[in-house]
Amino acid sequence: LKGGDVIRANKSVVCNAPVWALPKLLPDEYTTTSFWGSIENVWNTKQLKEKMSKTPQTESFMHVHMGIDGTGLEGLDIHYTVINEWECGIDAPGNMIVISIPTVLDPSLAPPG
Q1: Does the predicted TM-score (pTM) go above 0.85?
Q2: Is 82 in contact with 96 (CB distance < 8 Å)?
Q3: Residues 2-55 pLDDT 10s
């Protein structure tokens, strides 16, 4: 985290992969174990994977990832959203742009040069 703190997942993992890619990344079944090695649960993900693969894609936005020299841009947020025309709704094709600037959190992502 920004202050140097670390949060470790005990029961879950956050993934930034698109929902349509997750079924390919997950096993059909997995087992969670306790600290001492005893079996806690056996999880079947087939139904979840099927549900994720049926999630409809939207044509409403473009997501731009930018790495820029942030000199003089202190206080910039990591994400910005632009809606071209509110009257059309955010689900109108090409009406929404999400801009991510990860260098706000980690300037080394855009090294000099």
Answers
A1: no
A2: yes
A3: 788 876 666 666 677 778 888 888 888 877 776 666 667 777 888 888 888 888
Please, which residues bridge with residue 31 across strands?
A: 42
CA distance 20 to 82: 24
The answer to whether 72 and 35 have CB atoms below 8 angstroms apart is no
DSSP state of 102: G
> Where do runs of H (alpha helix) occur along the chain?
22-25, 46-53
C-alpha to C-alpha distance for 1 and 94, rounded to whole angstroms: 33
| Dihedral sign from CA coordinates of 30, 35, 38, 40 | negative
